[in-house]
Amino acid sequence: MNLYTTILLEFLLVASSILILFKFRVKLGLAPLYILLGSLQYLQANLGSAFSFNFFADYVIYPGSIILFSAVLFAVLLIYIKEGVASARALIIGIVISNIIMTLMFEITYLQEIIKNASINSYSLFRVDLKYFIGGTTILILDFLLLFILYQYLVSRIKKLHYFAILFITLFSILIFDAIAFNVALFSGTPLFKSSLVSHLVGKSLGALVFSILLYFYVTYFDNETKSTASFIANQNRDIFSIFKYRKRYINLKAEKAEVEKKLVSQIESALKNISDGFVSLDTNWCYTYVNIKAGEILGRSPESLIGKHIWTEFPEGVGLPFYNLYYKAVETQQTQYLQEYYPPFRMWLENRIYPSPEGLTIYFTDITEKKEAESNNQMLLSLIETSDDFVGLASLEGVPIYLNSNGRSLVGLAEKDALPASITEFFPENYHDIIINEHIPSIYKERKWNGEVEFKNFKTGKLIPIEMSGFLIRDKISNEPMVLGIVATNITERKKIEGQIIESEKNLDTIINNIGDPLFVKDEESRLILVNDAFCAIFNLTRSDIIGKTLAENVHPDEQESFLKIDKQVLTTGVENVNEETLTLNGTDKRIISTKKTRFIDDYGHKFLIGVIRDITDRKNAEIELKQSEEKFSKAFESNVIGKAILNKEKTIIEVNDALANIVGFKRENMLGKTAVEIGLFNFDDPKNLENEALLWSEFSEKGYASNIELKYLLNNGKELFILISLQALQLYNEDHVMITVVDITEKKNAEAELEKYRNNLEELVKIRTEEVNFKNAELQRMNKLFVGRELKMKELKNIIKELQSRK
């Protein structure tokens, strides 16, 4: 066995060990591979130089060191490519830590040898060159980091580079860097520097080539997860410095994943509750485990009341019906079932989709009663469409024609048996296809319709037919989801001919200026009108025959004629645009206030023209005057010295108050601004009657927009009572609703009324006493009168008795 055979065996042993352990990483995990790489790195650092051979006499190659070190880089890059940043970073840390631990263990063993032998053995197997170890470990860490950064840069930024070239450049660059850095750090300035550097460069170049070829063939052809080089490279979409950023990104992604999963579960639950289909699930005992809101509506039960209940106990009327049989068939066959059937107990058509599983059944059902009823009317509708004089067609949402009525086929030259084109765009000229796809169809989806004039192509003759078309979406009545595109078109060939004749007969300029809402005019250098629009005629109440060729100064009041033409001459002479407000009186009519903008135009022949635009601002000016007068009146009325007034905004906060109200309620005016009426005591005084009146006040205001003369009692700061008469009036300020409060002090009136009431009550009491006294005297007189009358009667009777006795004698 010669030298080269042993080198080849060493390479095959190391490379195959790495690839076998990596291949079976799913079953074994990455730990065995990590242990192997840590051992290889230690062997390379401490024993790699044990064997060497010379070439070209002066240069020495250490094949063991080259194979072991290149194998470690090869394995680290393989793990980074296939397992990602986390595994690669863990491997780096593991290699460094294991290297440190094993070095310390060898150093301790070496110290034990010294203690035992009482002498230093310079050829001990366990002796470690710490300078060599520290320098090599530092450079190794740099090698790993640069390896990932360079590979990621090449694979993600240089797209046209072959994948083998990426691998070779990466390994070659790092191995060459390691050779240079190692020799500079350890042998710079020594006689060994040149020979050691050349030896490392040659050996590691060969190592880069061999391991690049091995890595390329493995990831391209022998890894089951990689189907092709192209797809593999496309998956290397990492950040160039991901080796430094991975931990933070991993934590963020983990938190984001948890949040997304939480939201997803919530969204699924919300979706099931709110989907338009009924959704229920049954366990193997035919008991409800879930019922959504729509299912509860269809079944006529609350979802909570059905959970845990047996389906055929709750709905025995369904036993034996097609739904019942299909549910059992789904359970027995474990195959999805579908059924549209009328369900007599509910008097509705139901569409059922039944999904079986070992845990039970999941059932989606939809009320399709309206759909079925609509289908019964389809034939009638189809008859109406077929007899329509217009083009009526339907297309799928992707624009594929699915129906065209008879007149539509006739319009575009298609017989009854002819197949419809593959796309609705084929009905139109080729130069119009992009407009249909990019403008009209998106407009139908966005605005739900599109109307306009276009052209159809006749498939037989190739002629273009002008049409007026409406495109719209036909939606499902229940879900409101779009179903198909509808197109209705009318042949407007005759109409277009007539329109063309009309357009040719009209002047383009008249069409333009008459579409302008403001009065427009053109004058020549003599201020004579040569062109006006309809709005100009209307504002002056004149016809074109009354205007054309005149300056209109003839119709203006003599006092205004000079200023009327002065501005025209100024603009025509200087070319400076003029905007001016003018007062005109024409044909004895009321004065009109107008804003006129005049501009000079010079044609190619040097002729000057005056172009003007007029706006009638009479109403605006009058409104400004009225507003100013109204504001003055309001200001005078508001600043009354007797009647208190305040303005409240919609939050009932005082934004303005006059001195009269401040004096009435005993506050300073500046202390009342920004406060509510309650805060200064106008309302909510602790008096039931006051509260009742306040409620009446706002109730009447809410109903009528005003409230008048409600009495309230107010307590001044000094403790005295104040009676006020309060009114509310709606007020518009700055386009917002406000309330004006008007307050009148009626304290003196109320006090006078109270005093008068007091006098009236005293007078009534005095009259009562005097009446009682008179009644007593009258009673006494009546008693005395009766006494006297009785005595007179008795005297009279006595006299009669005496007379009778005398007569008897």
TrEMBL record:
Residue span(s) of domain PAS: 264-315, 377-448, 505-575, 630-692
SUPFAM superfamilies on file: PYP-like sensor domain (PAS domain)
Residues annotated as transmembrane: 6-26, 59-81, 90-112, 132-151, 163-185, 197-219
Keyword Transmembrane found: yes
Keyword Transmembrane helix: yes
Residue intervals of the PAC domain: 577-629, 708-758
Keyword annotations from UniProtKB, A to Z: Membrane, Transmembrane, Transmembrane helix
One Pfam family matching this protein: VUPS
PANTHER family membership: BIOFILM ARCHITECTURE MAINTENANCE PROTEIN MBAA, DIGUANYLATE CYCLASE DGCP
Record protein name field: PAS domain S-box protein
Species whose genome carries this gene: Mariniflexile aquimaris
